[in-house]
Structure formats: C-alpha cells, structure tokens
Write a structure and sequence with these properties.
The chain is of the alpha/beta class and 430 residues long. It is built from 14 helices and 18 strands. The protein has 3 domains: 172 residues, 3-Layer(aba) Sandwich (Rossmann fold), CATH 3.40.50; 99 residues, tm_1862 like domain (pyruvate-formate lyase- activating enzyme), CATH 3.80.30.20; 125 residues. Helix 11 packs parallel to helix 12. The two termini are 42 Å apart.
C-alpha cells in the first residue's frame, strides 16, 4: 500500500467512493433498488477543504467495469472506498452474490492505480475477515464508518499512523486484524446525494432514504432522531433537489407510538406535500396511527416478517394473530402494504407452514413475499442448527449465499409454495 501523506503535500487528496451493489431487493412481483445512503453519508463526513471527493454508483451501470476504469483514469484518486450494502440478493431460489463484482472492481482499480483501497459497508461488517480475504483491499472499516473513514483519509494524507482507528481491518504478518471497537457515526452530518441518480431511485425503489432512528433497540427513545431535524432534512432535499418521494428508515416506525404520532402530525403541520413509505412492526399499532400516517402522505408500509422458532406453534399463532391485526388495520384505513413470511426455519413442519399460509390467505397485501429458507449469518439460530447438522463448519462458509431449510420440509416446500402462489397473483416465492 503506497504512502500518501507528507509535510510537502500541497493538493487536496482525491477520494473516489464506489457503491458496488448492483442487485435490488429480489421479489418476483416487485423490484426495488435501494439507494446507497451509507456511501452518501461517508461522502458527507469528508471535509471538502481537505478532500476532493467523487462518488460512483454502479447500480444502474450498463458497463460497470468500464465506468470504474474511466472514473479512475480521469479522476486519478489517492484513496478509493468501496461500499458493500448486502452480501447477496437474499433469494434462495435465485441467489446472486455481490462479492464477485466488488472483487472485480478491486482488482481493476489496483491494476490501473496506486490508490489505497478501503472496503466497508453493512455487508462487510458481518464477516469482515472473510470479506477482506476474498476481496483483497488494502484496508477495511466495520460499523457505521463515517468518522473512521474520514479520520483514516486525514491520517493517510498526513502520513500518520492509523491502526488504532475503531473498526479498522488490516493485514499484518500474513494475518488479518480487526480492531475490537466498531465505528458508530450516526447521522451527525447530512448525506451527499447530489451525485446519485435520484430520479431512477425514486422510480425503482420505495423512495429516497431518510434515517429517523439509528442503531440499537428500536423502542429505546435515545435512538430517536429529533423530529425537527428529520423534517428539516426532508424540506431541504425537496427544495434543493426536487425530491418528493421518501423512505423513512425505521423498520419499527410505529415504536414508540407517541413518537410516531408526533412525527406524522409534524409532517402535516409542515405541509410538505410528499409521499413517503416506511416499515411497521406488528405491535403498538392502531387505526388512529394508520389514519394519521395516510393523512401525512404515507403511501405504503412494509410489515416486518416474523421469523420465529417454529418449534413453538402457540408462539407462532400469537405472533401471526398480531400481524393479522395490523394488516387488517391497513386494509380498513386503505393504506397499501407489503408483507413477508419465511418458510423453513429450524423446527418448521407441515403444520407451521399451513399456519402461515392461512394467515396469508386472510389478507390482501400489495405484495406478499414468501421466502424459502433463512439466509444464515454468524451467530444466528439457523447457523448454529446448520452447524450441528453438519451443513456448515465455520463462519467463512456463510460468505456466499447460504440458506437454512429445515430437513422436515426441504423436499417439498418450494413446489408447495409455488403451487399456492399460482392462485394468488400478489404472492412472490423467492
């Protein structure tokens, strides 16, 4: 890795940020390409007085390697940051890994440039050592890396040591080291969205992402972003960039309920005239909130999937009943929604499969996404079950799309769900 800094450096460091994800959220009946919001936040953290920053998003590229080559040759970056949002497209029936593309980009950049290559993003943070080994960057950053990446760029520019940075991944003496503390930047600085194709993302997704809560327990009030701050950001994005469709990033928008009510009322009072979408959890939701969400511009909600321990039919019944209530509330309030169900969790049986299908037959969603198998991640119940069954042996086995499907249903579940979906045009089996 070349040294970048020194006391005689006179020009701004050139930083090229590349979003390598080219896969959307795979659903047969609905394709959604999420905007690389994390990369835009990283760009926002870089000091424009110290760094000349450019972004390259590969999502809609016809010739992504050609675009990368042209960007690197034209811009001549000193530092290249690669962001990986997902390890794969999340589909067991049509699995597509993101990592080969990221490795292609890494190899190409290294072949035509002396730039330091840094890899990060949510997917990289799941399996940092394995991702680092596979992709082959110079450095990596785990966690929400706005602060760490910005500090890294500053230190590289000055020629200073950087191995104490939180969340840093590096190779030393033929071994890969991951510093213990991950970076947790939050949303202290606004994202830089101007270089992204916002019109395409507005058409191909659920709206331009705006963070309303940061990491941690969704019900904890300390994780709530101030409502006024969110409203001001939306207002700025609409006035400055002409945006009118947003996705409020909070899988549990309705938690806590009083905050959700206040948020909707603030949107109404601000008279922004926007359309917005979000995610709900099947608890602490009532018709008053649904009506207020719709009045404030909500056009669609994603009701979270309930991946539960299928060994407990009573628990499954209670959870499905809770989910059914929220779906019916949306129908009564004429608020469109999507819903998901996962089949094949540890302990799945014909009986639990039928419970989920009964639930799905009793609702009328815009899209029902029926997932076959659970994408295994390190430390998950499904991964531990697979390990005990001899399906996987270490976390590195999970780098590529790897799904757990209970042996009790694996021989027939796909055909069964596809047969059911043939009678329900809004159902998608993936």
């Amino acid at each position: 890795m070349p040294a970048l800094g020194g006391p005689d450096r006179l020009r701004l460091m050139k930083v090229l940020l590349i979003a390598t994800n080219r896969h959307g959220r795979y659903m047969t009946n609905l394709q959604a390409q999420p905007l690389p919001l994390g990369l835009a936040y990283i760009a926002g953290y870089l000091d424009p007085e110290q760094h000349n920053t450019k972004m390259l998003d590969l999502m809609f590229a016809d010739d992504y390697l050609g675009d990368v080559e042209r960007a690197v040759k034209d811009f001549q970056p000193d530092l290249v940051g690669l962001s990986i949002r997902n390890l794969d497209n999340g589909s067991n029936l049509n699995p597509q890994s993101v990592l080969p593309i990221t490795k292609e980009v890494t190899d190409l950049v290294r072949s035509i440039s002396q730039a330091t290559i840094v890899c990060g993003g949510p997917a990289f943070s799941i399996l940092p050592k394995d991702c680092f080994e596979y992709i082959g960057p110079d450095l990596g950053i785990t966690g929400s890396g706005g602060d760490s990446f910005s500090d890294l760029a500053d230190r590289l520019e000055r020629g200073e040591s950087y191995k104490d940075l939180p969340g840093l991944v590096y190779r030393e003496d033929d071994s890969i080291t991951v510093t213990e503390q991950q970076s947790t930047s939050g949303v202290l600085k606004p994202p830089r969205l101007e270089e992204l194709d916002l019109d395409k993302y507005a058409e191909a997704g659920f709206g331009i992402g705006v963070i309303t809560k940061w990491f941690g327990n969704q019900s904890a009030r300390q994780n709530l972003r101030p409502i006024r701050e969110v409203i001001d950001e939306v207002k700025d994005l609409k006035q400055r960039l002409g945006l009118s469709k947003f996705f409020f990033i909070a899988s549990g928008f309705n938690l806590p309920p009083d905050h959700a009510m206040s948020f909707c009322q603030s949107l109404i009072d601000a008279d922004l005239n926007i359309e917005w979408n979000t995610g709900l959890v099947p608890e602490s939701c009532d018709r008053e909130l649904i009506d207020l969400m719709k009045e404030s511009g909500c056009g669609l909600v994603i009701i979270g999937d309930l991946v539960v321990d299928a060994h407990d039919p009573e628990d499954l019944s209670a959870r499905l009943a809770q989910m059914l209530r929220v779906c019916h509330l949306c129908e009564e309030g004429e608020l469109p929604y999507t819903v998901g169900q996962t089949f094949g969790a540890p302990g799945e049986t014909r009986g639990t499969v039928e419970q989920k299908l009964v639930f799905l037959r009793d609702i009328n969603p815009a899209v029902a996404n029926l997932r076959v198998g659970i994408r295994m991640l390190p430390g998950s119940t499904s991964a531990e079950q697979a390990r005990s069954e001899g399906q996987i042996f270490n976390d590195g086995d999970l780098l590529q799309p790897t799904f757990y499907v209970a042996r009790s249903v694996e021989d027939w579940i796909v055909n069964h769900l596809q047969a059911e979906a043939s009678h329900n045009p809004n159902w998608s089996v993936d």
